[in-house]
Amino acid sequence: MAGVNKAILVGNLGADPEVKFLGSGTQVANFRIATTENRVNRSGEKISLTEWHRIVAFGKLAEICGKFLSKGKQVYIEGRIQTRTWEDKDGNRRYTTEIIANQMQMLGTMGAPVEASASEKEFDIDPGLPGSDEEVPF
Is the Cβ–Cβ distance between 114 and 129 less than 8 Å? Predict the structure, then answer.
């Protein structure tokens, strides 16, 4: 039986996406989102627990993220969890865990909603969303 690797997050961007091009010419966007869970602890005190998540998008999805996302915006992300390891310049083993996004939807009240998804070879904007044909330049 095959495993399932799927992450679904709704959170707010901590900063504007950082968009770059790989040596192959593929566009990549990196950004972080915060998810916050509100709880009541054993003493009845309300507490908020915030977790930060590294998000990576490639290709057309990266382009859309770079154009439409900015610090503070609420966003829905679907993707898969990936952990990368490498050695730093001092020979220490380092690692990072990221969500490789394949779907993004802007949430909140500012502007018309934009939904985007991508695989390695395709990219979609939902034509049923108001304003999507006019606001997305392709």
Answer: yes
- Tokens (6 digits) for 102: 């394949």
| Architecture of the domain defined by 7-124 | Beta Barrel (2.40)
Task: Say how far apart CA 48 and CA 28 lie, in whole Å.
Answer: 32
Q: Helices then strands (H, E): number in the chain?
A: 2, 8
Q: Which residue has the tokens 């900063």?
A: 15
52-87, pLDDT tens digit by residue?
999 999 999 999 999 999 999 999 999 999 999 999
Cβ contacts of 24 within 8 Å, gap of 6 or more? none
pLDDT < 70: residue spans in the chain: 109-138
